[in-house]
Structure formats: C-alpha cells, structure tokens
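Justification of resources, computational component.

The compute hours requested in this renewal are based largely on the per-chain cost of generating structure records like the one below. Each record pairs the submitted sequence with a full structure-token output. That output is archived, and it is also reused by downstream analysis tasks.
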Amino acid sequence: MGPGMQMIPPSGAVLTRDQVIGHVRANRGAFDNDFAIEIADIRPAWQAGNAIVVTYVEKQRRAGEATARRASALFTENPSAPNGVEWRHLHETWMQAASD
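The structure output for this chain reads:
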C-alpha cells in the first residue's frame, strides 16, 4: 500500500493506509482458521501512463458466513515496491449474494 492509500469499504467510511493496516493486524488469527478470501473476475477497467484501475470480486467466508463484494482498485508503478506496484485506492461495495 502506497503512501496516501485510501480504502472505502462497503460501510462508506474512508480509511487511511494506517487504519487499514491496523485493522488487518488487529484481526490476524481472529477466526481460528475459519476465514478464507477468494479473488475472482479480475478485469482492467482503465489504464494510463503508470496507473491502472482493476475491478474484481472478493468472496469471503468468515465464521461460517459467506459474503461477496465488488471492488475497484487503483495501482501505480513503483520500482521500489513489492512486485513493482503500489496500491493507491480501493473502493468496495456489497454484492447481493455470495455464490460459490
């Protein structure tokens, strides 16, 4: 996640990079192996220069409950970042139902 990265989860809140990292760290191991994420239907939506927007579906299974959200993410090139890209923005919205 690059500096200034923001995430808008389905709740509509605007989270800073530090808040996202803090949330992930605080919940590590919280579901006793009853947690899985699947990323599917990855598609480029827009690209210019060193930036790309991709869309994808994120399916989660947590504590026996399945959810799905559609996401749009902005990435930019950065040779010093892992795999040469930085995550700059993420916007998620709930999908009506999570299907397997």
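The two ends are 29 Å apart (CA to CA). The mean pLDDT is 91.
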